[in-house]
Amino acid sequence: MKFPRSSGILLHPISLPGQFGIGDFGDEATSFVEFLAAAGQRIWQVLPLGPTGYGDSPYQCFSIFAGNTLLISPQRLIDSGLLTNEDIKDYPIFPEERIDYAKVREFKARLLQKAYRNFLELGDSDEHESFERFCLAQASWLDDWAFYRAIKDAQNEKPWYQWDKGLASRDKKALDEALVTLSDEINAQRFYQYIFFRQWSDIRDLCHQHGISIVGDLPIFVAHDSSDVWTNPHLFKLDEAGNPTVVAGVPPDFFSKTGQLWGNPIYDWERMQQDGFAWWVTRIKAMLEIFDIVRLDHFRGFAAAWEVPHGNATAEHGAWVNAPGRELFSALRYALGELPIIVEDLGMITPDVEELRDEFGFAGMRILQFGFGGDAKNPHLPHNFINNAVVYTGTHDNDTARGWFASLKVRKVTEANAHLARARNECLRYLNSKGREIHWDLIRASLASVADVAIAPLQDVLGLGSEGRMNLPATEAGNWNWRFRDGLLREKVSKRLREMCEIYGRT
After folding, report:
1. Model confidence, pTM
2. In this structure, what are the phi and psi dihedrals at residue 262, rounded to the nearest 5 degrees?
3. Which residues are known to be catalytic?
């Protein structure tokens, strides 16, 4: 799909400021949308919005359909009459610029349980009818999710493959008994999703009122411990005990000498192809109901995936195994029409991956931080861009622009660090920059390029250093918890960004 010339900002909602320990869909989200509009932006890109599991990564969610209830706004619950000011008056003191997930989960769980009880006891008939309509419309995934989440609570948060045998293997008698025992908690989980999607719908509607489209990330793989694998084990390469025979990752690369071992189970593509990829059609359709544009993470996995035998400690000893990407996207296009998709065509990209991208007209990605230190043919340098591309100063996996540039500075050039000095010098020469505002220099280069879409992380727009980094790939701790302080979305920032966008025809 051809995207109009435009620009936007990458910011995951958890990074919004606010008093309740994590960004949410309340007033701060509204203020951010208004900032985007004032800055002439037409895109808000977010990371996956699902309920996070181990490591709090949005790329390892307990469900590909459910929403992360930590994003529900307590203030909006008060506005809708489901909570009172009294219910939140004793909220904990949270860190301002980092997320304490354990504390936030405990606090939000208590509020959501209170809101559910109030809904049952005090909700009017219109509210109950709205809830029932939601449950009917989303039953294809909602019932499985609510059941999974209720059992997981009852099983002390153990992954599904460690549950009691009858529940793990989905024995009918065990499931029927659990349905009766856990009926109230199952209904509560449905209600929490109802609230999540109602609040997100309000945010999306506000974006559309301002002419802003939302780009949402879709991870290629799903977490082993998820409602999706528990309810569809036949669609994955698992053994009889429910353990993966092979897991996903990438071989050694720029980010890690031993590769990245993600641990996700691999799809049984032959089985999926038998019913015309119905599971994928349902998944993409659901994503296009909450996002306007979908970014497919790790696109090369649709041509071939790096499969590592289960039990390996690193991703070094795997193999590339072909995937039926052409057949999959043909089925998706037949079922859903033209697909508004951006693809992450980064890393070890082979000609078959490029052919798959171009055959379906998907927009690829360019990262300015990757452009320096090589030669003039580097595809991440603006003079080599094509129109059908999305250029980023950096992504959630990169350091911030200022942090990256600072990392290139060396006191004494040696054989070991010469590549850093070379990249820094090339960057300054290419951008005709002194380096004092390298973040704005990179933003200007992206906006001036021929790429149809230019996106910058908010950290770069605000000129933050490495303290604003969101994720360091191949590490398990300290990620996904950055938030920006209230008061940073100043008028002078939005005005400067808007003026740049006007100059380069992106408003």
Report:
1. 0.96
2. -75, -35
3. 297, 344, 397
